[in-house]
Every structure is written in C-alpha cells, then in structure tokens.
Amino acid sequence: xxxxxxxxxxxxxxxxxxxxxxxxxxxxxxxxxxxxxxxxxxxxxxxxxxxxxxxxxxxxxxxxxxxxxxxxxxx
Length: 75
Fold this sequence. Notes:
Elements: H1 2-28, E1 31-36, E2 41-46, H2 49-63, E3 70-74
Antiparallel strand pairs: 1-2, 1-3
C-alpha cells in the first residue's frame, strides 16, 4: 500500500513539473531583431516581432551618426 502511494505522488509531481516547464518555455520565448546603420548594429527583443523591430531601429538610429538604419534579421 505504501509503495503505490509513493508511486502516485511521484507521477503527480512529475506531471506538475512538466506542466510548469512547458508553460515557462513559451513565456520566455521572444523575437530578437538586429538593425544596422553607419558603424552601428543594435538588437531589440520583444514578445511581438513588430515591437522587436521598432526597438532595434530606434536604438540604432540613436547611436548612429546618420540616423538611417535597416533591419538585418529577426529570429
């Protein structure tokens, strides 16, 4: 009787751990975009690709002597 109870607790604990890890992985994922300008490359990250692009471009334009930047890639 005692071994069956331990096995049930272990299975329940394992199920909770898997659920937490699966949920944490999706929350941690984000888009990362790289923008390049005159002598400058910057990164921007966000949960949405649009925001990641805007962040990368704004950072690049602020740091570049000529405020003209383009998105190099997003992943």
